[in-house]
Each structure stands twice: as C-alpha cells, then as structure tokens.
Amino acid sequence: MQYRLIPKTGDEISTLGFGAMRLPLKNGKIDRNKAKELIYYAIDNGINFIDTAYLYGDSESFLGEILTPEIKSKVKICTKLPSINVRKYEDMENILAEQLKRLQLDCIDYYLIHAVDLKTINRLLKRDLIKFIDKAKAEGKIKHVGFSYHGPKEEFEQVVDAYDWDIVMVQYNYFDDNVQISAEGIDYAASKGMGILVMEPLKGGILAGKMPKDAEDIFKKANPDKSNAQWAMEWVLNNRNITSVLSGMNSFEQLDDNLDIAEKTTPLSMSFEDMETVELVKRVMRNSLKINCSTCGYCMPCPQGVNIPTCMRIYNEKYLFGHKGFINPSLIDYYQYAGGIMGNEGNAGMCNACGKCLRKCPQKLDIIEELKKVKKEFEFPGFKYILLFIRKIGFPVYRQFIKILNR
Fold this sequence. Notes:
Elements: E1 3-5, E2 12-14, E3 16-19, E4 25-26, E5 29-30, H1 32-44, E6 49-51, H2 59-66, H3 69-72, E7 76-82, H4 89-103, E8 108-116, H5 118-126, H6 129-138, E9 142-149, H7 156-160, E10 167-171, H8 183-191, E11 195-199, H9 213-222, H10 228-237, E12 244-247, H11 252-264, H12 272-288, H13 308-320, H14 329-338, H15 367-378, H16 383-393, H17 395-405
Parallel strand pairs: 3-6, 3-12, 6-7, 7-8, 8-9, 9-10, 10-11, 11-12
Antiparallel strand pairs: 1-2, 4-5
C-alpha cells in the first residue's frame, strides 16, 4: 500500500480508504460477518483510513462494535456531522456525543461537516459552528476537522476560506472533473496544506462496470489488460494533490482490485497518451449518459418510498448500453428492482413532487423532472396491473416468461 502525507496534520494516509456507506447487506441490514471480514482484510492489507457518517444507517455503531482498541490504533476514523440535522448550537454537541458513543471512541480522528455548500456553511456559522469545533478540539473529542463538499465549483474556495480546515472530501472522477470541484480548486485546497479525499472515484460504479461499446473499444485498444475501474482510479490518483480515494467496497473482488490499483499507482504516472484515452472515453460517456447521477443515495430516503438511485441507474443503463425493444434488459430490471418484484416497491411513478430530495442532491439535479422521464420511459399503461399479475403468478414463472420472450 502507498501512503500520502496530509501536511496540516502530519498523518500519512493510505491512497485507498474504506468507505463504510455501502457495506454488504443481508435482509436489508448490514451483513455483520461479511462486513467485518472485509474491513479486517482491508486493514491487514494496509488501509488505514475508514470513513463513515451519522447518516450512514447503522454504520457508526457497527464500526464501534468490530474495531477493537488494537485495531483502532492502526487506523484513522473519519465521520461526519450531518449539517441537515443542525437547527441550533446544542444539536452539534448532542450529535457528537451520540457519535462518540456509537463509535465507542473518546476522540474522533477526522470530523467532517457533512454535505455543505456556501449557504450551508454560512447557516452553520450563524449557529456558532466555529465555537463548537474549537470546544470539541479543546476537550479532546475531535483531533482534526474538515468538510465534505456538495456545492458548485464556483463556491468551493470560499468554503475553504471559512475556517482553518485540515481536510476536505470532494466528489471527483474523470467524468465529473469540473462539477463540484475543478483541478484549480484541488490545487487551492492543497496550497493550504489540506488533505484531499475523493468520494465516488468510480461514479457509483458506472465507471467500473460495463460501458458503451465505443468506450470499451477505446480502453481496450489502449491497453487490453487494464480494467475500466483501473483507468478511473488511476486517473484520480495520478493527481499528486489527492491524498486518498474512498471506495464503498462490499465484496472481496472489489477490494482486491482496488488494493492492486492503489499499490501500483503513483502521482503523475499516467502518460499523455493515457490521459488522452480517458478524455476520449469521457466524451463517449457524456453522449450516452442521460442523467448525471452517481447513485450516491444522499437523496434517500424518499418519503413516498421511491428508490431514486435505482430508478436513475436503470434509466441511464438503457441508453448507455442501447437496450431496445418492448422487452429489454433495462425494462426487466425496472420491473424487478424498482417495481418491487425483487424487493420493496420504489418506482418513479410513486413520486408526489414533495421536493425533499432536491436540497440533498450533490449534483443539484432536478430529481422530480428526472423521475418524470423515468416514469414515461418504463411505466406503460397498466404498469401496476402488470406488477400485480407478476406477483400473483410468482417470480419463477415470470423469469420463465421473460426467457421465452427473449428467444
């Protein structure tokens, strides 16, 4: 494992960090045995940074359970104060106290203000955010402080200047290289000595899995032995100002692949030709991707039960991979995973335009309008009756029916 220095804190952080937002699930809850094995394996292989948050379900409590004092001495724990939950000063102190209890810690290594833009920071400053930070530091409850940024690139430097931060977390990948932050913004944070953590380096898996044929052909022609994920991770880590990429790994295959990439990639290791190859693939992807959604899940939960990330993902995949015909893989996926055949119902047509998701979205997507597109694409007249019919006949019969149609 390679490590990079955070100048402000003196800590050397593994270039691959473990993101605990997408831990493996079993019956809708964290699969504690598998998740524990994954995290222990990651630490044994050199990962020394684990990222979680107050809003990541049961993640904090789970980490508190499995990380023994010996293991905690090997890693830096990072969690986040949910800005959306802060209405008054006392909320910050109460939430931090709860997080320390969940994590079974006396002191949190890195404490980030979660999901901020300039408006959010200004709101928190009026509620004495700096007083809270300074007091928590003085009492030994947090060591270092930063923020996870979910605003436009034009406001980034102003948020950096709002406090003497130690670290920042940003969404950055070769597809979203100029949305929340630009290369100039990264340089600016680095000039302050801040550590720079990257979330969504694979854009929720879109840059790691199957891609449009034109994009696949470009990558394979340049290097047939390099995976799509490797191209994406290398592109991020090629920037010498990036401290670490955080990946929400929920399988040993993903973990091993990312460990291999992180071990091999050094700053400025990509050639000019490699960078050009990535730029060509980005152009192809931009022409195919209809909704710029990373499936991060910050929009969830939806009060009406809409599975927003799944709806967006399936809609994108239909156009990314050119799925056509009345019965096609994307339509089948929509019935299974959004329609509720494989779990809870969460189709786009359930949206009542309440708007609660809008202020949570890091991409500032008009989710309500995007869901209307998804509904129009997949929910034909009689959609609910078709779902009811499938549930009545049973899923095995449905699968056999689909096989017959696809012959």
